[in-house]
Amino acid sequence: MNTILVVDDEPNYLIVLSELLKEENFEVFTAENGETALEIIKNTDLDLVITDMQMPIMNGMELLKAIKSFNSDLPVIMITAYGEIEKAVAAMQAGAFNYLGKPFKNDELLINIKKAIEHYTLIKENKWLRNEFQTRFGFANMVGKNKKMLQLYSMIEKVAPTPASVLITGESGTGKELVAKAIHFNCPRKKQPFISVNCAALPENLLESELFGHEKGAFTGAVALRKGRFELADTGTLFLDEIGEMAMPLQAKLLRILQEQVFERVGGSKELHVDVRIIAATNKDLKQEVTEGKFREDLFYRLNVLNLHLPPLRERKDDIPLLINHFIKKYAKEFNNPNLDIKPEVVRLLSRQLWKGNVRELENIIERASILCNDNCIELADVQPENEEEIKPPPVEINFDPEKMAMDDVRLPDMLSAIEKKLLKKALEKSENVQTRAAKTLGITKSLLQYKMKKFGLHKKNQKT
Asked: Which of 17, 97, 151, 358 fits as disulfide partner to 313, beta carbons 3.0 to 4.6 Å?
């Protein structure tokens, strides 16, 4: 629903114009002077201001300049009396969308209102799209050639053009929001807003206001009308992340929107209609949540019309080198370091990790290493997974014998780890635990030696640097 502010010092004129606009399904605010109008403008999401030119305290031209200093894009239609054409032209030069001379026909006013709001909507969409496409969404930003990922891409291509609700499942950090954006930017709504809400980030009462908006005075602190995410996403897509955390009362309201496309703002009674595609995501097993009475069964089936599951990173380890390369390029650009590189042994190490935090954890590691590394190259010493236990291989005690290297019951990683550990111990013993000499003997850097000592638990109190 579009919102219009009408400003005029004649009360009867405000009443007549307000009723006309309400009949046309506009939400209308009124003000009898410029100062009151500015308070409304600063505290309300408006789509248009209609103001008289001649008013006491602050005239229409002064109000126009104040509006443009606050929001240069908000359209203003000026109402002028007969003989004020010069002032009307000056108002157009100052940024007014148009002017109408009194008396005017209702149809003339409504046509101008429609054009002004369409113009404002287009400006907002263009700004939003420019900001969004600074980060490339869609398939271009999805990395992976694993069989499961290729199947996911195929599913997105089939799902995206439809208006159906989508439920994206997967562990935290697997990239569920990225999939949601890929769906949106490959569907007919791609030029319309993509609005995201994390249902786990807000308590129930604040989440309700965030989703549905609120009327002025609906609760303590509600000093002005606010449109919710559903209104902001109208004609576009609303992404509800962590939907499994939504409280049952809000689930009922969400179900109503899915069924009827209507809702009321918090503290309001007027039904508002929206056209929004819902994409939801969760790291929970919603079927189990339904069984336990924590999630509405009818809502689950409404959301789960189409289901896309994101595999954890441990099930697509062949994609880790591709992801690392992707993140290296990303942070090389972000940190203005075109020569940023990574050693092959670091890639091999990272490819063996479990990555409980999935892609998000891997990216965090690469970002941190990109900042801390020396000589523009990420080495083993720069990579410290958050859970340091993950970098330690299972304890193995293998007596090294080259003739037994091909035995079926000995895993190659275990054999290599055992060899490496023995060589490190031998070098440290020969160097009398002087790390600099041990590193030189092994042909590696001191920092790499320290990293490997930590990896294999070779730290001793009497070791020297």
From this structure: 358
